[in-house]
Amino acid sequence: MSIRLAVSKPLRPLASDQAKLRRMRLECANDNGVTSAKYGRPNERGNILHAALRHFAAHGLAAAQNAANEANAARARGDETGYDWWYDICHALDRGIARRLR
To answer: Domain span at residue 76?
Structure first.
């Protein structure tokens, strides 16, 4: 692990330009608050990601295929809500399998 700091921008010009430094602080890299029509509300997406990670912990590398099988079983039962849930988990784990599932 490096003990040296390698900045992407020179420090001296940034230190002298306080307005630019303030703007840089406002541009955060964390996108927790971003809402996208594709992924729904942030809290909903967080719940899906949490469920996908727990599913991966339980099923390992077969988790995406297992989620796809669960989605197919839900569709066969006529459970569209269950299908959407398992599809989203499958999509979080493996987009290729999710694409074939659709």
So the answer is: 41-102
Q: 67: which 2 tokens?
A: 């989620």
Cα–Cα distance, 82 to 73 (Å, whole number): 9
User: Cα dihedral sign for 70, 76, 79, 85?
Assistant: positive
Least confident segment among 12-26, 30-44, 49-63: 30-44
- How far apart are the C-alpha atoms of 70 and 82, rounded to whole Å? 8
Query: Structurally, how many domains does the chain consist of?
Result: 1
Mean pLDDT of 68-97: 95
List all residues 6 or more positions away from 16 whose beta carbon is below 8 Å from its beta carbon: none
Residue 10, phi then psi, degrees to nearest 5: -60, 135
For residue 31, being part of any structural domain is answered with: no
